[in-house]
Amino acid sequence: MTNTSDPLDFLWFIPSSGDGRYLGTERLGRPADPAYFRQVAVAADRLGYSGVLIPTGAACEESFVLAGNLAAVTERLRFLVAIRPGTASPAYYARLASTLDRVSGGRLLLNIVVGGSSQELAGDGIFLPHDARYDHAAEFFQVFNKLMETGEASLDGKYIKAIDARLGLPPVQQPRPPLYFGGSSEAGIDFAADIAESYLTWGEPPAQVAEKIARVRAATAARGRKVRFGIRLHFIVRETDAEAWKAADELISHLSDETIAAAQAAQSGQSDSVGQARMQALHQGRRDRLEVSPNLWAGVGLVRSGAGTALVGSPATVAARLREYQALGIDTVVGSGFPHLEEAYRVAELLFPELGIAAPETRLRPTFGESYLFGGGGHVGNVRGVSAS
Questions:
Q1: Which of 94, 114, 153, 362 has its CA 20 to 30 A from that of 166?
Q2: Per the domain annotation, does 270 fall within a domain?
Q3: 356-374 per-position pLDDT tens digit
Q4: Beta carbons of 382 and 374 less than 8 angstroms apart
């Protein structure tokens, strides 16, 4: 079990397919814009997030290229970059990963993505059935890991064939950047037990997360291994619970029933992901059953594939819910909120103090020592604090 007094490793999300203030509408939407992604990354870097998740997919900016761009404008931030076996050879991905780790100064993390939309997989030239994709990925990482760790690898496998593959320049991290993975199927859990250093789950109710963690722990123990655990969640944090629930309602206030039905049909018809099916089962596309566990709200999943739940509440309430997950063994959180720039500030300013997460130190002094109150940014500056007599 994880000590719930320990600070969580808290990452944020780069919305590399676009962002917005409301779900299911063009109203106040933000298109995919590399300059905006840099804003989000710089904010996360200065606010105390340990890293950012960069997704993969046909609708997203390419994850490795975007991470290289963001590494140049940040100092401490790590990059959890999606890698999809099958879209390129393990030798080519090893060169990408080693170079990114080198140019970022050892700030690369790798998020293995095996499943997803069957339509998108077909577009990428991947036609393997569900379980076979994991067999293919296992061979892929035999070659990838050996290259990253030793600079050379060979394999005459069922899916992967590499003859005297070479990697000329090693990564900064030794033996290589760590591997993160999330999958709910039996094949996915077996793969995680063999390959991953960190196992990620989407935000299901605590009892379901506990059951999944127990399955992964048993599988890794049978192999003489251990993994760490993380959770992927959205956050709607406000100063009071009432304000937070109002914000949750507003997030889907422009979402029509027709849009929900179309999104749910697409998710069901295009994906063989067990994790996606578990997400949809939480709400079944219905607006009247969105609080699926105390303060765990499934409204995001009405239209968003993948992670579809948010923790909603005041800082104290959300912190208490996170401590429940932490008691199960979760030590890493990958968070997000809509829109991602503003919500990165809200989560850091409201929730981080409750979790014991400190912002990075700065050498800039706000005053000469006196107490000042924010005065609205007028030309005479702030207001000198007055002590009560």
A1: 114
A2: yes
A3: 999 888 888 888 888 878 8
A4: yes
